[in-house]
Design a protein that fits this description.
InterPro entries: RHH_dom, RHH_sf. This is Ribbon-helix-helix domain-containing protein. This protein is an alpha+beta fold and 82 residues long. It has one domain: Arc Repressor Mutant (Orthogonal Bundle), CATH 1.10.1220. The chain is 62% helix and 20% strand. Strands 1-2 form a two-stranded antiparallel ribbon. α1 packs across α2 and α1 packs across α3. The longest helix is centred in the last third of the chain and has 26 residues. It starts with a strand and ends with a helix.
């Protein structure tokens, strides 16, 4: 079981914090690296797209989930066409 940890980051010139389990942080770092972005830049993108009703922690978890789902779908498509 992964404990939730609080993280602080500066995005668009202001300090903010969010709480995530380590596997989500690891996935965010991997996604940022794959895209050639800093972790702060990726989190700023997610923050900019989220609805104000969703907190940043939840938005980041949903983002990681959607990325994983998209990756799985792309792999399935590649396997079925190749």
């Amino acid at each position: 079981m992964s404990l939730v940890r609080k993280h602080s980051i500066t995005i668009r010139g202001h300090r903010t914090s969010f709480s995530l389990e380590q596997p989500f942080m690891d996935a965010l770092r991997d996604i940022a690296a794959e895209r050639g972005l800093s972790l702060a830049a990726l989190i700023a993108e997610v923050d900019a797209l989220r609805t104000r009703e969703a907190n940043l922690s939840s938005a980041l978890r949903v983002f990681v989930l959607r990325e994983a789902q998209g990756s799985a779908a792309r792999q399935a498509d590649a396997a079925s066409s190749g």
